[in-house]
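Lab notebook, bench 4. Still working through the backlog of constructs that have no structural model yet. Next entry is a single chain of 363 residues. Request: give me the C-alpha cells for it.
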Amino acid sequence: MKTLRQLFSTSDVVQLVIRLGLLALLILWTLLIIRPFVPILTWSAVLAVAFYPVFSWLAKCLGGRPRTAAVLLTFIMLGIVIGPAAWLGLSAVEGVRELAGQLGSGDLVLQAAPERLKDWPLVGPQLYDLWNQAYTNIRAAVREVAPYLKPIAGMMLSFAGSAGLGTLKFLMSVLVAGFLFPYGPQLVSAIRGFLFRIVPEQSEHFLELAAGTIRAVSQGVIGVAIIQALLAGIGFKLAAIPSAGLLAVIVLLLSIVQLGAAIVLIPVVIWIWMDKDVTTALLLTVFLVIVGLLDNILKPLVMGRGLSTPALVILIGVIGGTLAHGIIGLFIGPIILSVAWELAAAWIRIDRAVPPAQLVADR
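Model written out:
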C-alpha cells in the first residue's frame, strides 16, 4: 500500500488538512449556532410526523388546500397548548414551588387522620390509629432529614422556574410544525435520500420504522398520557384535592413510563370518600375510574400493532430528556430514544439474518 506522501505532494497534503479543518470548524460552528434550537426543531418534527395524517385528511376536506389546513391545524394545536395544557402546567408549577418550600424548611404539611374515618365499619378505628401513627412519625422523620432535602428543593425550584421558557419552546415548536406540514413530501424525500446514502438496502424500511415509532410513542404513549393527565387534573380540581396540578403531572409521568395512573388515583379516591358526601364521592369515583382505564381503551386504537420498546428505555428517555432539555425534554426524550432503540434493534436483526461470510464480503 502506498503511503499518503507517495499519493499526494506536500502542498496537496497541506491543502487537504486546511480544507478538512475549515470543514470541521464550519460544522462545529453550525452546531453551536443551532444548539439552542435543537429541542424546538426536534419537537416540531415529532409533531409534524404525528399529526400529518390529520393534516392530510383536513387538506382533503378543504378541497386540496394544504396551506389552509396547516394554518387551521396550527391554531387548534396552539389552543390546546395555551388552554388546558397551560392550566395544567401552571397548577403543577405552583404545586412544585409549594412542595419545594416545605422540603427546604423541613415543615412538610401532612394531613392528619380525619375524624370521619372512625365511623367506618370494622376497620375504621384501626385505620384511624394507623394513620395518626404514620402522620406523627413521618413529620418527625421529615424534620430530621430536612437539611439533606434542601438540594432536592433547589432542583425542584429550578425546574419550576424553567416552566416559562418551556412553554415558549412549546409554542415555537407548534408554529414551526405548522410551517412543516405543507412541505411534508419534500422533507420525506430528502430524508429518504439521506438514508439511502447510509443504508441503501434498508433505507425504505428504516424510514417507515422511524415514522411508525414516532407516531406510536407520540400518539399512543405521550398523547394518551396527556389526555389522561388533563382529565385527572379536572377530577382533582372538582374534588378540591390539594396540589391538584402537581398530582396531575405525576399521573402524566406514570402514564408515560407505563406504570399506570392507579398509583395516584387509588389514594385520591380513598381521600374523596373520606372527605365528600356519598353522592359526590360516587360521581367522582366513577369519573376517575374511567380516567384510569382510559389508556387501556385508547392505546389499542391509536397504536395498532402496539409498542415493542421496553418501558425501561422510555423511562430513561423521560429522565435523560428532562435533565438535558427541561420540560420539553420530558416529551422529546422517550420518543428519540424509542426511535434509536427500534432502529438499532432492526439493524441487529438484519445483520443476524445475513450469513457471517456474506456480511464480511459485503463490507
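Notes after review: Residues 99 and 108 are 8 Å apart (CA to CA). Confidence is low (pLDDT under 50) at residues 356-361. Flag for follow-up if needed.
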